[in-house]
């Protein structure tokens, strides 16, 4: 098949000039029946169609069944992911990999511990990038492959599953798009 310029241009028009990234290690929260119940089938379908795509694509097509906050863990629900809950210890070092599919629009990124009841970060980010993706990083690059150390201050706040998640957050400033992945954990 030959790509014509017009063909490429229309492909770009369909996909837009969007960035794409998603956490693949550890395996983050995914979709399930609870998400469909709380976010609605329409939003869930748009999010699932492109798991590395921006949350904004989904919230532009909300219906009356949209009752979740897609900006918290991409609308993925703890109830749909209980089997992925991680027991961690203070000081544990966890390796992450972000699958960066396209980074047309740089922005900011961080990894934070999020209180799932309030959607507020607990403490300061564990890792913070003023520029993400960081084209000067590596090799080996440390914007998509990095480690996070579990702080020793979470024993009470994160003592059982469903209270806290490690959230990777990327905001691409150029096109104002948000990318998130969450890992549920509790401190044992
Ligand atoms: C993480 O980065 C995003 C985008 O810059 C920002 O909105 C959010 O407040 C940051 N989180 C923390 C805990 O600083
Ligand atoms: C990545 O490596 C650079 C250069 O060594 C360093 O300045 C930066 O802090 C590192 N970032 C992370 C997130 O490890
Ligand atoms: C994809 C995945 O791991 N789904 C699981 C999320 O958690 C629920 C409840 O433990 C499981 O039933 C799913 O298989």
UniProtKB/TrEMBL annotation:
InterPro entries: Cellulose/chitin-bd_N, Starch-active_LPMO. Keywords: Copper, Disulfide bond, Glycoprotein, Metal-binding, Signal. Residues 59-185 form the Chitin-binding type-4 domain. Its cofactor is Cu(2+). Residues 1-19 form the signal peptide. One of its GO terms (molecular function) is metal ion binding. Belongs to the polysaccharide monooxygenase AA13 family. This is Chitin-binding type-4 domain-containing protein.
